[in-house]
Design goal:
Elements (H helix, E strand, L loop, with lengths): L2 E4 L13 H9 L5 E6 L2 H15 L6 E2 L4 H6 L2 H14 L4 E6 L1 H6 L3 H11 L8 E4 L8 H15 L7 E9 L5 H13 L3 E5 L2 H4 L18 H5 L4 E7 L4 H11 L2 E5 L5 H15 L5 H21 L3 E5 L2 H13 L3 E7 L13 E4 L2 H8 L4 E4 L4 H7 L3 E3 L17 H25 L1
Parallel strand pairs: 1-12, 2-3, 2-4, 4-5, 6-7, 6-8, 8-9, 10-11, 10-13, 11-12, 13-14
Helix pairs in contact: 1-7, 7-11, 13-17
């Protein structure tokens, strides 16, 4: 059992976490024809947009209610109404994802009441799904906002229907990048099942050129598919943070579910394939049996470089859990674990203490490590300590191809082993030269 400690400092130094509205926006970007709308100042939206653009190197649709000092004091209902009507006229979204920010949460706007009164004045909006999620950025982190948005989506959009024994819902947690989700969808399809991913970043932020310009997201889960989620025979929840959303579907539609806290590594992948085999009543396809043997060989080839290495990690809880156990199973030691927000997983981490803190805490704890795992903001810590950094999480703005990285199942685990193993190999060669 790990001890979870929250550092009590007056201010974060070199912050690690990203805000809840950013996490919610990321979830909404996985829905087709969607416009995320921040109820707050223009600066809140601009900051999130810049970060997402730098990470994915894609055009990111994001809008704002543009609150000012006056509207903050007098109330933002008019701003919300005008923003929604303008979006409907100019962008014609199929879904609007409405997120609050610290500014409007502090003021205490009754968002559900505001939406009811707007719909009453404008009945033409009654057919437009406006998914509201409360995301104060003065507490929580990206993972909390993402999970809250997924929970709101599955609570408001899916409709009851006759069960389809071949359809499964994939609730994708914030640790899954587009490349991860594409791999998971392909695996599920190869068992003869029909996957509906919520949200589906692999369709919207996978790095592709469209035939024409669109003001909203051009890929992701379509509204028609979202409405069919209630007909799924089973829910695959990838990440502890989306457990509440899976439970919500179970309560509403009686859909059984299983939570996979991670899909990296041999054991978790085996469990995933075993469940899919049971759900489909089909054997595991030969190509995945071969990938499993390749992963076993990769483990044999790389474990020399992982064994007894001291690794320090600074990641969101779901990703921290995934990477901590990945290293532990390869024989590495977790020297330090720093995260952004609380999670039920933290006490079960394979480390004595987990710190909810910032990159200043990470720098203090990581001294003497062989490897650092963090987002691109960990580069300064890496430089100061003289320890190599492997980039994980968000944002990664000094590497290409973030939308295509895959670290799940047999193939992704193998690639992760080689990528990190090569970093450790280079470090070992450099130390021999010196």
């Amino acid at each position: 059992m790990a001890t979870v400690t929250t550092r009590q400092k007056s201010v974060a130094v070199n912050p690690l976490k990203q805000s809840q509205p950013l996490g919610a926006a990321l979830a909404f970007l996985g829905l087709k024809g969607t416009m995320p709308l921040f109820h707050g100042s223009q600066g809140c939206t601009a900051f999130a947009k810049v970060l997402l653009v730098r990470h994915f190197r894609e055009a990111i649709p994001l809008s704002t209610t543009a609150m000012t000092e006056v509207t903050t004091i007098l109330g933002g209902e008019d701003n919300v109404e005008q923003a929604i009507l303008t979006l409907v006229e100019k962008s014609k979204p199929e879904i609007i994802g409405l997120c609050t920010t610290g500014l409007t949460e502090t003021r205490g706007d009754d968002m559900e009441g505001i939406l009811r009164s707007i719909r009453k004045r404008h009945p033409e909006l009654n057919t437009l799904p406006i998914v509201f999620v409360s995301t104060p950025d003065f507490k929580g982190a990206l993972q909390d906002g993402f999970a809250a948005a997924v929970e709101s989506i599955v609570r408001e959009i899916p409709e009851a229907g006759e069960k389809n024994p071949h359809q499964v819902t994939i609730l994708a947690g914030p640790s899954l990048m587009p490349g991860d989700l594409q791999e998971i969808k392909e695996i599920v399809s190869d068992f003869g099942l029909v996957p509906i991913a919520v949200p589906d970043l692999s369709g919207s932020l996978d790095g592709h050129l469209d035939d024409s310009y669109s003001a909203t997201t051009t890929g992701g889960t379509a509204l028609a598919d979202l409405r069919k989620v209630g007909s799924s025979a089973f829910t695959l929840a990838i990440g502890e943070s989306v457990r509440k959303a899976a439970r919500s579907l179970c309560e509403r539609f009686g859909t059984n579910y299983q939570v996979f806290e991670r899909l990296s590594g041999l054991g978790p992948a085996d469990s995933f394939f075993h469940l899919l085999s049971q759900l489909s009543d089909r054997p595991v396809p030969e190509k995945y049996r071969r990938q499993r043997r390749q992963l076993q060989d990769a483990i044999l080839d790389t474990h020399f470089y992982f064994g007894r290495k001291r690794v320090s990690l600074a990641l969101e809880p779901d990703l921290l859990w995934q990477m901590s156990w990945f290293f532990r199973e390869m024989g590495a030691e977790i020297q330090a674990a720093v995260t952004t927000t609380k999670s039920p997983l933290l006490e079960q981490m394979p480390v004595e203490t987990v710190i909810v803190g910032d990159l200043e805490d990470f720098q203090e704890l990581a001294a003497g490590s062989d490897l650092l795992i963090a987002n691109s903001h960990g580069k300064a810590v890496s430089k100061k300590l003289g320890i190599p950094l492997y980039r994980q999480g968000m944002p990664i703005f000094d590497r290409l191809g973030n939308g295509h990285r895959c670290s799940v199942s047999y193939r992704g685990s193998m690639q992760l082993l080689f990528d990190i193993g090569n970093v450790l190999l280079e470090q070992e060669e450099a130390s021999v030269k010196h």
